[in-house]
Every structure is written in structure tokens, then in C-alpha cells.
Amino acid sequence: MNAKPLIQQLSAMLSAVAAVSVAIWIYLIFARGAFWRASVRDGSRPPAPAAWPSVAVVIPARNEADSIAASMRSLLRQNYAGAVNLFVIDDDSSDGTAAAAQNAATSENAASRVTVIASRGLPPGWTGKLWAVSQGVAAAEAAPAKPDYYLLTDADIVHAPDTLAWLASKALADGLTLTSLLAKLRCESLAERSHVPAFVFFFQMLYPFAWVARPGAATAAAAGGCMLVRADALRAIGGIESIRDALIDDCALAKQLKTQGPIWLGLTERVESVRAYGFADVKRMISRSAYTQLGQSPWLLALTLAGLALTFVLPPLFAIFAGGAARYLGLAAWMVMAAAFQPTLRFYRMSPLWGAALPAIAALYGYYTLDSAYRHLRRRGGGWKGRVYADALGSR
Hints:
Elements: H1 4-31, E1 55-61, H2 68-76, E2 84-90, H3 97-107, E3 114-118, H4 128-141, E4 149-153, E5 157-159, H5 163-174, E6 178-184, H6 190-206, H7 209-212, E7 226-230, H8 231-236, H9 249-257, E8 263-273, H10 279-293, H11 298-321, H12 324-340, H13 342-347, H14 358-377
Parallel strand pairs: 1-2, 1-4, 2-3, 6-8
Antiparallel strand pairs: 4-7, 5-8, 6-7
């Protein structure tokens, strides 16, 4: 039997698959909001408003005694001419988070501007974070003067002194219902260097920031560590209760608020996360919500993994092991993805050589997605800080 026709057919099939990978990258580079350029940032200075709006800062905190003081200090020291009050919700912590928050307020001589709330327990149908945020919003709404805006932030986030002024100026200048900054994540350990820039790259690929800002586009996203929300828009969507069971709460909130007006999301160096991640922490963080992002659908899971393989994993395999056209097409796709990764790597001050490792990193993310599906099948999905939300969905 002559094996030559079979080899030719196999070669043609491999070349066709490699050509699909190249076509995907042509689409990603030229037709997906130029996400890879990482150019939607807070670099410009919006005009200052004639009058500064009042802001209620809501900080849900569960076992955050190590970081809550630094976060609160950065907020209490804002160069902001309007009224700013902090509402810290101790979400059933066991490490002295509430005491650390009270001490931080006292040390900054800001006790009158800080309210520390003990969470009243978790009702059915709510995720813990959103129940805590809801209690903070309720306390602010009950104040004699309701706030004009809410800054929803996390207890591990530190803000530059001009963050709030920039957010308020941007929101008022552009008439935004939601103004969000993707906090610059810590990128020091090997686990962080191998995962964080790729996480930001993938996030921008899924939700091109330029599309988020388009009023007519369906794309809606936000970064939960820093979201300035117009208070009347939040009331109009039914408050935090409208997303009470959302596991991916920031994007769920963005989707709701975009029905009320334009939203905006960008990269920043003004806002930083001080949380450190090891390999187990990274896996837990991604596995927590990856399958939820897919609507807990086995079909979407299969399609996602197939797309991930075509886009990221197969090109280097073709470049190394295939021959003929498949090799050159695989090499071309690999080079393009490595080049597309460079702006994000520069943002994190990482070596450009990490671009060549993107296929391996993507394969890890695929594994975490599979693990997320497995955890949901075992009804252990959405686990975080001792809580499990097996049936939670990412958005409504």
C-alpha cells in the first residue's frame, strides 16, 4: 500500500488547521477593538467639574486584617474637594478585620468619616460579597445626605491620592454611569509573572475596552477593585439586589448599568492590588469563576477549549513538529501572538521573552477552566474564603 497519498492528506489537514489559527489571529489583531494594544488607559486628564460630587466608598472585607488599613489610608488621604465617606463592611471575618478598620480610621483622625458595619449574616440567594456591598450601600442611602456616586472597591486595593478626583472628573465629563479602572495586579513572584499579564491580556481579549465604552455595543465589563457608580443609575437598576447571585459581579453590574448610560473601563497605574498570589492562589482564583463565565454549559466549555487550542496551543506545536506549510503557518501564528502580547508585558515591565510562553500559559488557563467545571460538577464551584456558590451564575 502506498502511504504517500495518506501522508499528503494528513499534511493538507494540518496545513488547513494551521491556516485557521492564522485566520483567528488576523481577526484578533485587526477586528477586535485593538485590545492587544492595551491603550485604553487613564493617561489623559479630564476637566475638573465646577462642583465636586459627594462619594460614598463601599469596602466589603472578609478576613482582610492585613490589607484593610493600607487601603483605607489611601482613600482617606485622597486629594478630593468633595465629601467622601467610607463604609467598611466586615463580612463575618475571623481575623480582626473590623478592629483593623476602626484603628485605621482613628489613626487618620477620620472616625467621623468612617462607618464600620458588622454583616448581618448571608441570606439565601446572595453571594457574600454582594450582600456586604448591599449593606454598605443601604447605610449610605440612609444617611442625611445621599451620595452622588459610589466608589465600590476591595480591601486589598491601594489608591493614588488623585484617583477619586480623576474618576469623578472622567465620569462627569463623559456622562458615565460606571467608570472603572483595572487595578494593576501584583506581579513579583513567579506565579504572578507567569499568570498576571496573561490574565490582563485575556480579559481585554474577551472584553475589548474600546467596545465597552461604545454606547451601542453589547460588550459590558468592569473591574471590581475600582468602580465609580452613579448613585441614581444604581437605584434605577434596583440596586445591588439586581445582581445579588452573580459570581462575576463586576461584569454583571456593568451589564446592568450600561442600560442606563455609557460606561468606561481602562488600565491604570493609579490603583494597585497588594494581594500576593502563589500558584495555588492563582488556580483557585481562576477556577472559581471560569465555568460560570461559560454559563456552566458543557457545550460552551468544549467550544472554548477547542478555540483555545486553535488560537494558542497548536501554532507552536505545528512550528516545532510539523513540516511544510503547516510549520510556517504555525510559526507565523506563534510570532503574531507573541508580538500581540508585548504591550501588556511592557505595561507590567516584563521581559519580551514571555511572549513566546503565551501558548503554555494559555494551556494552563485551559486546565484551570476544566478544573472549574469539575468543581461545579462536584457542587464545589465558586469556592472562596470558606464559602461555596455551586449554583451561582456570572450574570443575568
